[in-house]
Amino acid sequence: MDFGSNINGGLFCATNVSASKLAVVCRALTAYSLALTLLIAGRSNVLSQSPNPAAAKESDIISQKTVSTDQTEEQTAKSSKQQKDDKGKGKSGKRGSLVIAPIPISSPAFGSGLLLIAGYVFKFDKEDAISPPSWVGLGGAFTNNGTGALALGTRLYLKENKYQTTLALMKGRANLDFYGVGRLPNRPAIAVPLSINGEIFFGELMRNVGGNIFVGPRYQYRQLAANIERERTRPGGFEVPEIDLKSKSVAIGFHIQRDRRNSTFYPTKGTLFDFTADFFDQAWGSRRQYQTYKIAYNGYHEVASRQVLAYRAMGCSANGSVPFYDLCLYGFNSDVRGYTTGQFQNRRMFAAQGEYRLDWRKRLGFTAFGGLGGVAQNWGDFRTDGLLPGAGVGLRFKLDKKTHINYRIDLAFGREGRTLSIGIGEAF
Q: Which residue of 97, 154, 283, 404 has the lowest C-beta tally within 10 Å?
C-alpha cells in the first residue's frame, strides 16, 4: 500500500482536492488486507490537488497595493488598505480547503460498499511555490461482506519539495475467499472464508536527491489476527498457520521513486519508477523474519489528441519466513484486472499490462486494456500454461474537468471468470 500510490495514488484512496494522494497513502500500508485495499480501491486521489496558482497570488497582489502618500489622507488610506487586505484574505488567503467525499466502491474480493473521506488540503508553507499541496485525511470504508476499515493519514511536502513525509494509522477488518498458496490456474479451486483484522502504522520520509528522484527510509508496524469460519470450510482448503493466528510484523525499509509524469491524476506523458524494500526482523519486534521487494515502471504516451497509451510492468519477491498475508498477491493494485485478490499468491510475481485511454467528449471516456502475468514459488518456476492473462474495457466519467479525475468502471475477463471494479482514478 502506499498511503501514499502509487494508494497512485493513490489514501487514501484518492483524490484531489480531492483525490490523489490518499490513494498513495493507502497503498503504502502493505498489500495484504483489503481493508486497506478498499481505501485504496479507488486508488484514486481525493486529497491532493494543487490550488489555482492565480488564486494563490491574488492575496499577494492585493497586499502589495500601495496607499496614497498624501499626508492629509494618510489615516484614511491606511484604513482603506486594511479593508482591502482583509477582503482579499477572505477571498483567496485561506490556507487550505476542506474536502468531504462519499464514494461508491466495488471490489471482486470484498463486495460493494461506500468509501467516506474527509480531508484538508493545504500549503505547509504559504511562501513555497514549488511543493505540491500537503494534506491530512480521515477515511472509512465499509462493504456488504463485512469488510471495513478506518484510516487516519497525512502527507507533507516540505522545503520546496525537498522532503516528502507520509504517516498513516489504520484499523480494519477484511473478509475474502482465500484459495491457498501456490495454486495454479489449471488446478481445482478450493476457497476458504478468511477474515483478517488488526491495526497498522506506517511512516516514511523521502528526500529529493535531484532529477525528480526521491530516496528515504520507511517503517511499518502491524498487529494482525486471522481466522477461518470453520462451518464454511471445505476439505483440502487452506489452514492458517498457528503462528499467524495472532501475529506482529515490524519492518524497516527504504523507498526509491522517480516521477516524471506530467500529472498525478491523468498523465499523458512521462514515466514513473518505483522500488520498495521492507525488512521484517525479530531484532525490531517482528514475529517472523523475512523481506519483501517490489518494483514497478509506468509509461505514458499521447498517441493522438485526447488519446493516451499507458503501460505498466511490475515484479514482486518475498523471501524468508513469509506469512501468507505478505506474499505477492495477484489481482491487487489493478495489476492485470480480471482476477479476484486471494485467488493466486506466491513468493514471486510479475505482471505487465497496456491500456488505451480515450477522452471522448464532454465528461465521458473509454478504455481498453490487456495484460499478462503469473505467480510462482521461484523465478525459474514460471510456465506458459500457468500464466494469467486478462483483458477488458472500461467506462470513465470525469468528476473534475480541470484536474481530470475520473470515476472508473472496469469490466475485465481472466482465466477464472470476470470481475467488475468501481473506483476513483485510473488503474495506474
A: 283
Instruction: Please check the confidence at residue 283 and state whether its pLDDT lies above 70.
Output: yes
Q: How many CA atoms lie within 13 A of 365 on its CB side?
A: 27
Within 145-210, strands assigned E span: 148-158, 163-178, 192-210
Chain position carrying cell 481498453:
368
Separation of alpha carbons 2 and 21, rounded Å: 9
- A 10 A CB-CB count for 375 gives 29
For the chain, what is the mean pLDDT?
78
pTM above 0.85, yes or no: no
Torsion of CA 281, 286, 291, 292, to 10 degrees: -150
Q: Which residues, including other chains, have CB under 8 Å from residue 79's CB and lie 6 or more apart? A: none
β-bridge pairing 348-361 and 364-376: antiparallel
Which alpha helices (DSSP H) does 326-410 contain, by range? none
Ranges of beta strands (E only) in 286-387 are 290-304, 307-320, 328-329, 345-346, 348-361, 364-376
Matching residue, cell 506482529: 248
pLDDT in the model for residue 150? 94
Pinpoint the alpha helices (H) of 176-312: 242-245
Show the cell assigned to 237.
482448503
pLDDT digits (tens, 9 = 90+) for 342-362: 788 999 999 999 999 999 988
Residue 142 backbone phi and psi in degrees, to 5 = -145, 135
202-251: pLDDT as tens digits: 999 999 999 889 999 999 999 999 888 766 666 777 888 888 889 899 99
Domains of the chain: 2-51+96-424 (2.40.160.50)
> How far is it, in rounded angstroms, from Cα 405 to Cα 394?
15
Q: What b-and-e string marks burial along 311-348, b requiring 16 or more CB atoms within 10 Å of the CB?
A: bbbbbbbbeeebbbbbbbbbbbbbbbbbbbbbbbbbbb
* pLDDT of res. 230: 67
Tell me, what's the pLDDT at 403? 73
